[in-house]
Structures are given as C-alpha cells and as structure tokens.
C-alpha cells in the first residue's frame, strides 16, 4: 500500500472540504496567512474551517508578498497568498510560544507560479538552529506541499527560518501552530516529523479543525483493492489522550481476504531513521457471539504489542513506547490476526513520525533577547540578524562571534563589533546580558553618556579562558571610568572621548594614547643597568666556565626586571587562550589519572599531556571534598586577576557537572622543597641560583600584593609551592587558597586559619589578621630554609622553629654555621649575611616591622649583585671569595 502520496492527494483536493463550521475557541492556535496584504482584514475567519487566520507581518520583518495564479488552482484563502524571500540567506519568523509545551507545527507551501517564472524552488526549513526539512518542490508532482512536526520549544520564542539552498527563492504560504496535550505523542527524545497521517475512507474528504480539536489533518489513504472499507454512523468516542475525531473513528478498513494481513509500507530516508507509529482503532462492526477480532502488530517481523481486541465504538490509540528502526530498505507494519481470531484485523487510522534530534543547542535565550534589544535600541538593520545569532555556524550573524559549543553548552556571544555605524544614544543596557563578551567594539560612533560599570563585569571562570577587550574610543562619552573596567585582563580603549574625565582625581583611563608610564626610582634604574651589565658579562662567559645551571639561572634577572613593569602596567593577558576541556579530554590527557604528582590545594594532581606532547599538571577536584568547590572558585577567582611569569600558568580547565579540573603548565624540575631535601637526584642548587629563585618567587608575590586589584594574599607560601621549570625559573603555585582550606597538620579545629604550620604568620595565627605581610613572613621562612636547609620545625632540636635556630646561631656571628653545608662555602659571605638579615626581618614576629615585598626584592637584588660580583671578579676562585667575606668589616648585624 502506497501512502507517501496521501498528503498530496489531500492538497490537490483541498477545496473539497465538507465541514463548514462557525469559528469557535482555538486556544493557543497561531494561524498565519503569510503574505496577506496589509489592506485586507486581519484576522479573518477562514470560511470552511472557521480557523482565524492573521497576517504574518507582525512576526517577520523581511520578505515580499506574492499571490498564486488562481486560475490554476482554487485552494483555501490562506494558501493563495505567500511571502517570499529574495534577500538574505536566512529569513525567520519569530513566534511567541509557551516554553516546554508541545506544539504541532505546520508549514504550507503552495507555489502556484506566483512569480511567473514557473521554476519550483528548493530550500531548507529550520527550527532555530536546526534543520527541520528540505522543501524540495522540484521533485514534487503537485504544486504544493507541507511539513509538520511535533516539537517542544525550549524558549518562549520559536524561530522558524527559511534558508536558501541551491539559489532558488524560499517562500511560505502559511504557518500554523497548535498546542497539544501533554499525554500524547510522548517521546524519549527528539521531535517528531510527520511522515504520514491518514484514515481509511472512500470519501475524498480530509478531516481537520474543527472536527479535530488539534487541527491534525487526516487525509484519505490511497484506495486499495485488497481492502474492504467499512463505516458506521454510530457515535465513536475517544476516551484516550489522542482526541481522535469521531469522523475518523467511524471509518475503518479490513483486509478483504480475512486470512491476509493489513499492511502499511514506507521507505526510510536512511537506515538509521527512527520512527514512532500510532495506530488508532475502534470496532465498528457488529460482532456475533461466536466471532472474535484479535490481531497482533509487527514491524519488520518484530511483534510490537500483545494481541489487540478493538473496543466497540471506542477509539484506542496504540503507541510505540520506543522509537523503532526498520531493518531493511522498506519499513513494513503488519496487522495479522491471531489464531483464535475469526475476523480479519481492522484499522481506522494511523500516524507515522520520524524522530528528528535537534542536536544543535540554541544560543542562550537571555543573550538572544539582549541582542534583539540592542538591535532595537540602535535601530540596527541587518538582513542576517535573524534566527539564531550563533548557529548554525555558516549562518552566524554579522558583526559578532560566538563560542564553540557542545551538546551540553549552548553557544554564547563572545564578541560584538558595532564600530563606525553611527550609533547614537547611550551604551545599551542590554549589553550586560551578554555575560561572556570578550570583545566589544563600539568605537567611532556617536555614543554619549557615561561608561557603564557592567562592561567590566566578568565572571571568574571566564577570565580563565579569555582575554577581554573593550573599545569605546571615538565616541562622546563623559563621566569617569568605573573601577570594574580597570581590572587586569581587560584591555580598555577610550581615547577620542573628549568629555571623558581624564584628570588625576578620576581614575586614569588606559588607552593607546596614554600608556601607563612606569616610574622607576633612580636606584632601580641603576640596578637595572647593573643587572644588564652583569647579564651580558655572564652570558658572554657562560660559554666558558659556568655550569649549565648557573648560566641558565642568570637570565631570569632580565625578565625579572621587565616583570616589575608588567606588574604595574595593564599588560593584556597571555596570548595563549586558556582552553576549556571536556572531562573525557581530561581523562585522556592524564591517561585515566595514571600518574599522580601529589596532592594539591583541593585534590589530587596528575601528570598529563595536551596535544600528545605538551606536559601539564592536572589538578582534579576530589569528589569527596566538601570544601572543594569553594576552593576551586577561590583559585579561579585569583587566576582571573593574575598573569605573571613567576606564577604558574593555567593552560585550561574543565568544568563539567561534578567534575572540576584545572590544567596547569607542568614544571619539569618539581618543587624547591624536593631540591633542598635532596629528593631530586640533581646537584644541589648553588647560592647564586638560590638567590635567583628567591627573587623570582618574591616577584610573583609582589605581583599578587601590588599588581592585582584588589591585592591578593597567597597565604600558603612555602618551599613546596615554589615550582621550578626546566631552566630552574621559579614559579609560585597553589595560590588562591580559600579561607576554608587547611593544609598540613594541627589546625583541624580552625576554619579561619589557612596555611602551613611553621610558615604561618604568628600574628595571623593569633589574631586571625590577614594581610600581605603574612606572606612576607612565610617568605622569610622560605628564605631561611634556602639559606640554612634546616627543617622549618625540627622534631629533635629544642630550638624547634627555624627562626629560633637561626637566632641561636647568629649569636656566634659565624655565617658558615648558618649556611647550608651543602653549599660547601661557595658563596659571597656579604651576600649571605644580607640574605640572612633579610630573611630574619621578613620573619619578624611583629607584622608591622616586616618589609614589603618590594623592599625584599630590592634587597635580594643587592644580594645577587654581591654574589655576582664575586663570581665575575674571581673567576671561580671560591676560596678567595669566602675569605673576603670573612674578613669583611662591613658584615651587617642580623636583626
Ligand atoms: C501546477 O502548476 C502548473 C503551472 O505552474 C500547472 O500547469 C499545473 O496544472 C499545476 N498542477 C496541479 C496539480 O495543480
Ligand atoms: C503539561 O506539563 C507541564 C509540565 O510538565 C505543565 O506545566 C502543564 O500544565 C501541563 N499542561 C497540561 C495541559 O497538562
Ligand atoms: C486468501 O489468502 C490465502 C492465503 O494467501 C489464499 O490461500 C486464499 O486463496 C485467499 N482467499 C481468497 C478468497 O482469495
Ligand atoms: C457463527 O454463528 C453463525 C450462526 O449463529 C454461523 O452462521 C456462523 O457460521 C458462525 N461463524 C463461525 C465463524 O463459526
Ligand atoms: C543564559 O545566560 C544567563 C546569563 O548568563 C544564565 O543565567 C542562564 O543560566 C543561561 N541559560 C542557559 C540555558 O544556559
Ligand atoms: C558588519 O558586517 C557587515 C556585513 O558582513 C560588514 O560589511 C561590516 O564591515 C561589519 N562591521 C564591522 C564593524 O565588523
Ligand atoms: C570553533 O570551531 C571551528 C570549527 O570547528 C574552528 O574553526 C574555530 O577555530 C573554533 N573556535 C574556537 C574559538 O575554538
Ligand atoms: C556624529 O554625528 C555628527 C553629526 O551629529 C556627524 O557629523 C558625525 O559624522 C557623527 N560621527 C560618527 C562617528 O558617526
Ligand atoms: C537581562 O536579562 C534578564 C533576564 O533574562 C532580564 O530580566 C533583564 O531585563 C535583562 N536586562 C536588560 C538590561 O536587558
């Protein structure tokens, strides 16, 4: 039995409708007569169905009006006019719907040679970003077709788009939406595209509204000689959820040869197609006492149900609970009577739908609304600002870009460029709802008013993955620059706004015209020059006598000085974009978490590879960690503000449901603690390198204290958190410890104190006071460890804390007693003394007496200079250098 022509037959016979009715309530119906001329009444009642059709002009801004050549055909009025779309690739209707409600959506296309070209078009039909159907009129026998789908909109606005394909002009005759009940056509997933719906009748008439409350169109199935058509005039009720019209239930077919099956066949478009089949049946014959009608339903030989006995004059709808795939080239549904049945199977009507999974998530609804609002605010006319802004990718709106998406992550707008298009008025408030906007360019317009705060509202997670750019230059903005926009990581261009407050009392705008000038003190200039000279000397000598480690150690002094500038300037974030990884990528990169590197701030850290080669350290939030999420957020919060050569770089992150992971660069030389305790089978780090490492760690800390807004406190500075890369360049790690995080032992009962015993500022410990000088204290302890290589808290010695140990040795005034014996006296003692003194002043129990990190840095540079001048003067004659130190009368007194 051929059913694919059923709909066509109906459309050809469209004027044969018999049900003349009065308009009645059509709750939630949307009936659009596309292209209804403005001078015709709208809405109007279609005379045969009573459906109230209105003009489509309120729901679409584009397209032109056409009318079919009525001499050819005589359809219902709504199908005589049409809207066609010569301009733009995608044109969309925007319909108000109830989110989450199931709709029957019908689109009708009647060509009728409206354009006189007699070329039947072919184009695509989309729901939002997803392809619904290809309307191919070229391979159609008739002049009209329709598409139907059962679909649950995911937002309150439904976009139905006609998209050019093959260059012919898309058009549409009518668009009809009918809300359905909740309990019918239930699917596990996806929407249902109509393949066929028909009823068994000998009449040429089709049935739709008002007989069918949902306005489903029941067409006559092609007559078949092997069937016997039966009907009744008795009332046939439908007690089920499908609300099948009485007129459909009153008709049925049975195989003429009672021993044969009733067969329905159709050809799938692809062998993977999944179908839902609905059979509607009611017994409409009078059965004798000794007669039984019972049958089973088979799809491709597989029985779909228990034997069915149709109820007398009551419609039962048989639905498939699961989508079905047809095995072969053809799908065949068979109704076969059971052995005890005396009568052949019976069927009144059926429906077949194909599952369409709309895989492409729509752009975040809030953002779509925001873009529309921006469009309205500025009266932007953009032919392609229709349909989903971001997807499908080839139809993305002009002047914006979007994030790439996965099924679970709807696309978001990441850049918007509205420069030089004569925008007037203030900066549109709706921009704040584009919460993931990395780049915003509103330059060279005529915008007035203040610079809104929200341009700097950026969520922490986002800061990890992107760089931010706000270009407001060349407008007429006034007022001052909000604090939120002065954050690190936002590149802000404001030049060419003459009325914008640029005086010192206002916060200083950052722009290309006014680069931030780094004011260096005379002393630091001298140091810079000295260091540069030394670097040259050393680089030059490196070829000759210094070990690889020394040679590699020195160059960081150069970037170190440059970094001081970085810390104070508004350098944009690293060029490397921080990537978002899926959890499965994390599993892959760590080879299923095989190689553990240890335990970090809020979970285990694993070794891994990105792109097969780049080594990374992957910190995974432990599932059991109740504090974990907070700590993760804290780390993220910090990461958003930091980018510094002496802080460990974040490569990316993964944030999928319960699975949180941060992916850092992997530093091949491990942490400083391992080196000092000799756990690494490497030569002990020499004095010069230790000073360099100390300086770099200090620069990282200073950046946190001074270079970030608001300032950050590391709170867990210790040798284990100073990592070394393959050039022994030091980078601070594990920053952003949250208040709740506890590390080490002994502080289980405290929720406020964070940090590691021994490194913990005694004032903070006692008073719970937190400030950057708490880090200075910890840094002092680190420095003492680097100098002495003594345990921070000794289990054996009575002078249990390292500061006490050093103090006790200072009384003797012998630097050799204090210094790590592993250094084998290979250091400039002047330099060593200065370092000890510095370390002890950092570790001063009194918060206020400790130096700032900037002072620490200056002092460390002095230490390095002492040591370096020894190295350059003495060409490796260590013993002499030591002697000079010992003889010196200018040995400072350690405080
Ligand atoms: C379709 O339209 C053409 C003219 O474009 C006409 O010749 C033909 O008869 C129409 N077909 C039907 C089935 O109405
Ligand atoms: C359909 O279900 C939704 C939620 O599941 C509910 O809010 C709505 O009221 C239901 N509608 C009807 C007609 O039952
Ligand atoms: C009905 O079908 C059966 C099986 O194909 C066949 O044997 C029988 O002759 C048919 N009866 C009639 C009346 O055609
Ligand atoms: C049912 O009974 C009627 C008489 O009451 C008889 O004519 C008919 O053949 C019987 N049908 C079957 C299938 O036994
Ligand atoms: C859309 O974006 C808003 C604002 O960022 C957010 O609150 C909302 O959860 C997002 N919706 C979805 C479905 O992701
Ligand atoms: C916006 O898009 C249009 C069309 O693609 C293009 O001509 C124009 O240059 C774009 N404007 C900006 C500022 O990118
Ligand atoms: C998004 O995906 C496309 C194609 O898959 C790729 O060309 C593009 O670079 C991606 N964009 C981002 C930001 O990852
Ligand atoms: C701003 O408006 C003035 C006229 O009001 C116009 O001459 C000028 O070109 C506009 N500037 C921009 C950048 O659109
Ligand atoms: C931003 O979105 C929210 C919720 O979607 C909405 O209530 C609010 O009005 C929007 N704000 C602006 C300025 O458009």
UniProtKB/TrEMBL annotation:
Q: Which residues bind ATP?
A: 619
Q: Where in the cell is it found?
A: Membrane
* Primary localisation category: membrane
Task: Output the InterPro entries linked to this UniProt entry.
Answer: Kinase-like_dom_sf, Leu-rich_rpt, LRR_dom_sf, Malectin-like_Carb-bd_dom, Prot_kinase_dom, Protein_kinase_ATP_BS, Ser-Thr/Tyr_kinase_cat_dom, Ser/Thr_kinase_AS
The reaction(s) catalysed by this protein are:
L-seryl-[protein] + ATP = O-phospho-L-seryl-[protein] + ADP + H(+); L-threonyl-[protein] + ATP = O-phospho-L-threonyl-[protein] + ADP + H(+)
Membrane topology summary? Single-pass membrane protein
What are the UniProt keywords, alphabetically?
ATP-binding, Kinase, Leucine-rich repeat, Membrane, Nucleotide-binding, Phosphoprotein, Receptor, Repeat, Serine/threonine-protein kinase, Signal, Transferase, Transmembrane, Transmembrane helix
Q: Where are the transmembrane segments?
A: 514-540
Q: Keyword Ribosomal protein: yes or no?
A: no
EC numbers on record: 2.7.11.1
Domain Protein kinase: start-end pairs:
591-864
Q: Which SUPFAM superfamilies match?
A: L domain-like, Protein kinase-like (PK-like)
Give the signal peptide as a residue range, or say none if absent. Answer: 1-23
| A GO molecular function held by the record | protein serine/threonine kinase activity
This protein's GO CC annotations: membrane
Quote the Pfam families the UniProt record gives: LRR_1, Malectin_like, PK_Tyr_Ser-Thr
Q: What is this protein called?
A: non-specific serine/threonine protein kinase
This protein's species is: Brassica oleracea var. oleracea
